[in-house]
Amino acid sequence: MKDKIINKSIKIVKTYTCFNNDKIDNIRYGLEVLYLTISKIVVISFCSLFLHTLKELFLLFLFYGILRVFSFGLHAKKSIDCWISSLFFFLTFPHLITKVVIPIKFFKFSLSFFLILIFKYAPADTPKRPLLNQKKRIVYKLLTFIISLVYSIVILLSKNIYIQNLLFFSIFIQTILIIPLSYKIFGIEYNNYKKYEKKGG
């Protein structure tokens, strides 16, 4: 089903454009990501509906998504790996948002650690989407860090457990997705822009 939809879309693109093969490959990659993302959202949303965590899921998508816009992060090579990790993150954590009470000391320690990792490793690119522009990498790093810092301040100042957990798990998920260890586990190359710097040198 996926290949059929994507191939038909590519055929339409080729009919009305004069894009070269590299541009077509980029469009194909974008369509694959879009198809997988929509599929996951639909399936996870139905599961969350039965688990009564639909509101928490959408809020987690929102606050985690804001971070991911600027810090990017890994995309699993295999569809099954992506499905397993997505189902784990987005079915488990929405449930925990309403169930767990995390001590403030744990928040302080964990958030300090996360902020260090975010400042060091964000943004994290992929082999198919290397971040070649140095200025953009710096801007994305600063934006990711500032947003994470704001989340952290709200977590530490808020007395609302729901908000604390929501923002904490948003930072946690995105931190996991940008660190080199996660890339290594999934067999994905890290800091892909450096290959182009070496070629340019």
Features of this protein?
mainly alpha; globular; single chain; 9 helices; 201 residues
Per DSSP E runs of 2 or more residues, the count of β-strands stands at 0
Helix share, percent: over 70%
Shape: globular
**What number of structural domains do the residues give?**
2
Number of helices: 9
Task: Describe, in plain words, how this protein is organized in 3D.
- With 201 residues, this protein is mostly helical.
- The longest helix has 31 residues, at 21-51.
- The chain has 2 domains: 1-51; 53-200, no CATH class.
- The chain is globular, with a radius of gyration of 19 Å.
- The mean pLDDT is 88.
- The termini are far apart.
- Helix 2 (21-51) packs parallel to helix 4, helix 3 (54-71) packs antiparallel against helix 6 and helix 5 (104-121) runs parallel beside helix 7.
- It contains 9 helices and no strands.
- Helix content is 78%, strand content 0%.
In brief, what are we looking at here?
By secondary structure, this protein is an all-alpha fold. The protein has nine helices and no strands.
SSE layout and pairing:
Elements: H1 2-16, H2 21-51, H3 54-71, H4 79-97, H5 104-121, H6 134-157, H7 161-178, H8 180-185, H9 193-200
Helix pairs in contact: 1-2, 2-4, 3-4, 3-6, 3-7, 4-7, 5-6, 5-7, 6-7
